[in-house]
Amino acid sequence: MNRRRPLQTLLSLTAVLVLAVSFAACGGADGGSDSSAPIATVEDTIDAWFAASRAGVPADKCKIETDRYKTEQYGGPGRPCLQDDANNMKQSVWAANIKIVDIEEDGDTATATVKPNAATDAEATVGLTKVDGVWMVDSFV
Fold first, then answer.
1. In 10 A of CB 70, how many CB atoms?
2. Is residue 132 within 8 Å of 37, Cβ to Cβ?
3. Residue 39 CB partners (closer than 8 Å, separation 6+)
């Protein structure tokens, strides 16, 4: 009886399992990621915010807005943001690919000049603040 064969099989299966778990942790073959993971960059926050607006998904939009912004826009954080009519409607006015013209970062604040409209080349300004290490939308003009 060859004792090396069961050991080799066990080692091979262990290696396959480790690779499978590692692959799954990275988001799979499509490069996807966990939507609950914090957004690390100003660019990613801007893209996620406009994507949530285009899709009409208030939970995704509200989670990356500061409480100050939500209070100014909706009267408060939480339920007012989630139930806002505009947040619950698909906003096709926003382009699928937001053009970021310029970003100025200064510590925990940033200002981005963007071209967000699908039909025009008009510029807008997004103010962002880093809260607990995560960039969040703090103003939009």
1. 21
2. no
3. 45, 48, 64, 134, 135
Fold of 40-140: Nuclear Transport Factor 2; Chain: A, (3.10.450)
Q: Which of 34, 51, 69 is nearest to 141 (CA)?
A: 69
**Rounded to 5, what percent of the chain is helix, strand, coil?**
40, 25, 35
Q: Which of 55, 49, 62 is nearest to 116 (CA)?
A: 49
SS3 103: strand
Q: How far apart are CA 1 and CA 62, in angstroms?
A: 64
Amino acid in the structure at residue 131: V
pTM of the model: 0.71
Q: What is the pLDDT of residues 77-102, one digit of tens each?
A: 999 999 999 999 999 999 999 999 99
